[in-house]
Design brief:
Length: 272
């Protein structure tokens, strides 16, 4: 297990870069990027077997950001890991930039899958895992879904598929921050009891504190010991985590902070 303090520091660095890059772009999705920063730090700086010097290494672990609008957190991690210079984050969402508003594997080193249309990522993760099985590879495929995103029917078709084929090298995560663009998930469509739903589709499930680094690492370690079925880790999180005026506010789903708000947010994060 990695150094918890170092991973927490990485998560905080990711959050600061999320705020800076979205503020610079004056466009983006801070709320859901901040809520998944701890998981992304754990994946890229401890869990995943990857090589920034060889982004297309055939035996690498894969990451599918199904909630593609949270890409500022992914881009921050990739930059800190050395896939491209941190200065590239200043060009988030610019026309022609390698860092588009949703992940694009054709332009961004380290991005395994282009995503953006919600609900599709888990199906893609299944396909990658099936390909790995055919090629006798041992890599894992990690897939991050949003709690609002799993209102999409294709997610549950993918859940059936993953269990049917016993894809134990697929580990899914649900960023359960209880908010989506139009309000709480309970108000919009009410998809509660997520753990029981995945269990009913044949998955091993765990529910953890998605901001507790030790719980994240332990859950993934348990998932990797599971044989014959995929695992879904439901992470209880706070939308906008780390920035007090953004926390638990649906309005920060897709709103960029002003220059003054960027300064306030960074001041708070500097204190962590």
């Amino acid at each position: 297990m990695g150094n918890i303090g170092e991973l927490q520091t990485k998560a905080n660095e990711i959050r600061k870069l999320v705020i800076r890059s979205i503020g610079q772009a004056r466009s983006g999705h801070p709320g859901g990027s901040l809520s998944c920063a701890d998981l992304i730090a754990a994946l890229y700086f401890d869990i995943m077997d990857i090589d920034p010097g060889n982004p297309r290494w055939e035996d690498r672990d894969r990451f599918v950001l199904s909630k593609g609008h949270a890409c500022p957190a992914l881009y921050a991690a990739l930059a800190l890991k050395g896939y491209f210079p941190v200065e590239e984050l200043d060009h988030l969402r610019e026309l022609g930039s390698m860092l588009q508003g949703h992940p694009y594997s054709g332009k961004t080193p380290g991005v395994d899958v282009s995503t953006g249309s919600l609900g599709q990522g888990l199906s893609i993760a299944n396909g990658i895992a099936l390909g790995g099985r055919l090629d006798h590879k041992d890599y894992y495929v990690y897939c991050l879904l949003g709690d609002g995103e799993i209102e999409e029917g294709q997610v549950w078709e993918a859940a059936m598929t993953g269990a049917h084929y016993g894809l134990d090298h697929v580990i899914g995560f649900v960023d359960y921050n209880h908010l989506q663009i139009d309000g709480t998930i309970e108000e919009v469509i009410g998809n509660g009891r997520i753990e029981e739903k995945f269990q009913a589709f044949g998955w091993r499930t765990m529910t953890i504190d998605g901001h507790d680094m030790e719980e994240i690492l332990n859950a993934v370690a348990k998932a990797k010991k599971t044989q014959g079925l995929p695992t879904c880790i439901i992470m209880n999180t706070v939308k906008g985590k780390g920035v007090s005026f953004m926390e638990n506010q649906a309005g920060w789903h897709g709103t960029a902070p002003t220059k003054e708000q960027v300064e306030l947010a960074l001041k708070e994060l500097e204190g962590n």
